[in-house]
Design goal:
By secondary structure, the protein is α/β, with parallel strands linked by helices. The chain has 10 helices and 12 strands. It has a single domain, classed as 3-Layer(aba) Sandwich (Rossmann fold). Helices cover 39% and strands 18% of the residues. Strand 1, helix 1 and strand 2 form a beta-alpha-beta unit. The structure holds uridine-5'-diphosphate (UDP).
Length: 310
């Protein structure tokens, strides 16, 4: 199958491209390199099944493919807030363009949505039936509301034109090929620990997140691609939940670092807690994440050690 992976040079995208190539698919990787990087895909260039297209999804697309997977949107708080109007355009113009392409080609579209559609959730853990608690006018809204409207557009294409859509709500994911400087907690803490700098816990550090290793997330996306008759939305992630103080201490211990913790101001509208209910993913896709947090973090630490030369 020829798969168009938009955002294919990003963290999740490049890991998905690798899996698709390993499974014998042809990959058309499209990226604008806003947060994606050449380093993430350079190893695939010699593969005749891999092709790269430098383009932005907010421009109309004219590409032939059998399946579309959309990961094209800056996803870290730092980057999606740098140009909030562009982030919204990725989720509105970009999704319209992809859905029009899917309509012309009559092919399925798997879209990566986000746990951010739940906002600062009032139920815990979050299942897909929870409609979320999202502020429409906050500095996070360009991403949260953008991703929500992208889901709406997809469902309307499905209802109006009968298009085959699949929506995965991706929870916090980590692993090799993350950017070292995009402000996410996993990369921040590991890089700080490896450089012997203080780990910057925001707020009082009692807020929680649940972390999923990249190979599990890619497993989930592949299961969803290979499924039939299920639109989602479905949560993909893992249930390893930590507050940020405990998480910082784990990173200090796994890196054997002498770093200490410091407290920095909490970013505005930072959600208090986040953990996926994975019941639907298990029932519909047979998705059960396999990598335990220790193995996942150690592989990620090894990746950053190599990258930083520490
Ligand atoms: N965070 C932190 N220190 C950092 C970076 C992030 O304490 O150096 C916190 C942040 O306030 C949030 C959590 O870690 O509560 C996860 O942040 P991230 O940006 O990785 O993901 P998201 O907020 O999108 O879930």
């Amino acid at each position: 199958m020829r798969v168009l992976v938009t955002g294919g040079a990003g963290f999740i995208g490049s890991n998905l491209c690798e899996r698709l190539l390993n499974e014998g698919h042809e990959v058309l990787c499209l990226d604008n390199f806003y947060t994606g990087s050449k380093a993430n895909i350079v190893e695939f260039i010699p593969d005749p099944n891999f092709e790269f297209i430098r383009k932005d999804i907010i421009e109309p697309l004219n590409i032939e493919a059998d399946f579309i997977v959309n990961l094209a949107c800056p996803a870290s708080v730092l980057y999606y807030q740098k140009n909030p109007l562009k982030t919204m355009k990725d989720n509105v113009y970009g999704i319209f363009n992809l859905m029009e392409l899917a309509r012309r080609l009559n092919v399925p579209v798997l879209h990566t949505s986000t746990s951010e559609v739940y906002g600062s959730p009032l139920v815990h853990p979050q299942s897909e039936s929870y409609n979320g608690n999202v502020n429409p006018v906050s500095i996070r809204s360009c991403y949260d509301e953008g991703k929500r409207v992208a889901e709406t557009i997809m469902f309307d294409y499905h209802r109006v034109y009968g298009l085959d859509i699949r929506i995965a709500r991706v929870f916090n994911t980590y692993g090799p090929k993350m950017l070292e400087n995009d402000g996410r907690v996993v990369s921040n803490f590991i890089v700080q620990a490896l450089k012997g700098k203080n780990l910057t816990v925001y707020g009082d550090g009692t807020q929680s997140r649940s972390f999923c290793y990249i190979s599990d997330l890619v497993d989930g996306l592949m299961l969803f691609m290979n499924s039939k008759g299920f639109t989602g939305p479905v949560n993909l992630g893992n249930t390893y939940e930590f507050n940020m103080i405990d998480f910082a201490n784990i990173i200090i211990s796994f890196t054997s670092s002498k770093s200490k913790i410091t407290f920095d101001p909490l970013p505005k509208d930072d959600p208090v807690k986040r953990k996926p209910d994975l019941t639907l993913a298990k029932e519909k896709l047979g998705y059960v994440p396999k990598i335990n947090i220790e193995d996942g973090l150690k592989a990620t630490i090894a990746y950053f050690r190599k990258k930083l030369g520490t």
